[in-house]
């Protein structure tokens, strides 16, 4: 799951080296050479919380080495603040040859850290969502290969809506009305996050035809009339007191929905197995409703990208491994997405062959992902996000003027954008 790179546990040195099909403790070049490998590729993963994932990537590395005895794969499983550790290490001679990235950032391309991957994806572009390709494309080149797609959708309790005589919301007005009507002393209508914000501002913006940046990525545009109108809708939800606030878990955990604290919740596909186990078939999923008649339903796409160190000594060999694993190995891609957690394979043809997404809410979520998904642009960084978030918070909770607050935030974000493009 990618929510933005959150802090995890302290660094874990879970590193194994595979040479000629043998699992060895992390070792030096002499050991690799003795075993017959000519090249050792170091690969970094963040420490996934899903049981079996570490063993899986070790097995994938082993299978590649069996097919390519000259290549050893050293898998490093990185706990703690993965993004900080990765970016600090990429500036040193100890940088890994290949690694994963959660939130793709243009600055990595600008700093020459990433190798373009257009040669290995050539002819396969149609297999990937536009949102994923756009997110990892900078200056006309692709720098990240999607490993899996995380769909984010609106969950709703079928029985609760039916009892209240409420149809599944198709517009924001219907969502707001439903959330208010479903709110009682025992239950709130909607949960978008413990802070009452979560992803909602982005979803509202996108659902009204607005965006964070213009199509060329040169101008901040979230303060457009469409943006002002849509983001103001968040204040309505707060004024109606229909949002669940200050819950013990946040939006990406299904606890509030499972426990009946909210009738509807914005959450990820990764939570569906737990929801299904607790509620059976008493739930459904939809995209975030369109803001108005001229808007469109939207969802957010997450997931991780595989990338290659542009300054590594073995960039070509690293790209061949990525091509083998994330483009050619259909069975391994299925295994990675559904054997340990619950994610949609990034390649459309593989997703179509994955039976877990052939029916029910899982199929609905996969269809929502395919048809409505949006992603943050890679020029969108933490400084810009902070300016936007502060404005949204004041609009939603303090009743500040949306136009002036978003204009002020846009000016700050534009200055930051200019620094990146300089």
From TrEMBL:
<dbReference type="InterPro" id="IPR006059">
    <property type="entry name" value="SBP"/>
</dbReference>
<dbReference type="InterPro" id="IPR006311">
    <property type="entry name" value="TAT_signal"/>
</dbReference>
<protein>
    <submittedName>
        <fullName>ABC transporter substrate-binding protein</fullName>
    </submittedName>
</protein>
<keyword id="KW-0732">Signal</keyword>
<dbReference type="InterPro" id="IPR050490">
    <property type="entry name" value="Bact_solute-bd_prot1"/>
</dbReference>
<dbReference type="Pfam" id="PF01547">
    <property type="entry name" value="SBP_bac_1"/>
</dbReference>
<feature type="signal peptide">
    <location>
        <begin position="1"/>
        <end position="25"/>
    </location>
</feature>
